[in-house]
Amino acid sequence: MFDQVATGYDRTNTVMTFGNDAFWRAATTRAVAPKRYERILDLAAGTASSSASLAASGADVVAADFSPGMLAEGKRRHGHLPNLSFVEADAMNLPFGDDEFDAVTMSYGLRNVQQPKKALAELFRVTKPGGRMVINEFSTPPGRAFRGLYRFYNAQVLPRVARLAGTNGDAYDYLNESIADWPDQKRLSAWIREAGWTEVHYRNLSFGIVALHRAVKPAAPGAINSPRATSAA
What we know:
- One of its GO terms (biological process) is menaquinone biosynthetic process.
- It comes from Microbacterium tenebrionis.
- Belongs to the class I-like SAM-binding methyltransferase superfamily. MenG/UbiE family.
- Its EC number is 2.1.1.163.
- One of its GO terms (molecular function) is demethylmenaquinone methyltransferase activity.
- It is a single chain.
- With 233 residues, this protein is of the alpha/beta class.
- It has one domain: Vaccinia Virus protein VP39 (Rossmann fold, 3-Layer(aba) Sandwich), CATH 3.40.50.150.
- The chain is built from 9 helices and 8 strands.
- It has an 8-stranded mixed sheet with strand order 3-2-1-4-5-7-6-8, with helices on both faces.
- Helix 7 runs antiparallel to helix 8.
- The longest helix is centred in the middle third of the chain and has 21 residues.
- The chain starts with a helix and ends with a strand.
């Protein structure tokens, strides 16, 4: 499915989010806070738009995705960047060593993994002690009225917008279903803590349409997990 929509993926995202995708990408990059010479994994990188944003800092970025079609489009657009590499990877069985990355990030991909808890554990494994994780994912708007409007848009409008933009509308039917079935901010935060991450926080973007989840891998064995996730303004 993702191979089929790769060419028009970014264009459709911009149309269906009314340009908010650029704002969300910038917020994710700021949350990761990439530094020159750091090694960063961008999992579910898609066409590598987020990877290129991270690489602009001078960090060594690995764009990893399960879809070869997405990676091919990413290489076509951003393959000229010397500090950006591309790897086909399964989020539940990452082809990287333990403690390899200073930071790991994943945008709009965790809910597409068959076993998301296993993916969170794999991200934990490949992150260096003291390293950080940022997950940007569609979430649950806390306001009841806006949440109802958002769900109507996803169910009735979004697939039609995708078809008008020249993209496979059935893929965006799936998008609506996957968002509707996805846990809310607090439950995802609990999953992150279960995987071993500490300092777990989340921040709502665009009234909670998406949420940025941040966490840190303990710097020393036996570190005590934060008792609960908190919402950051």
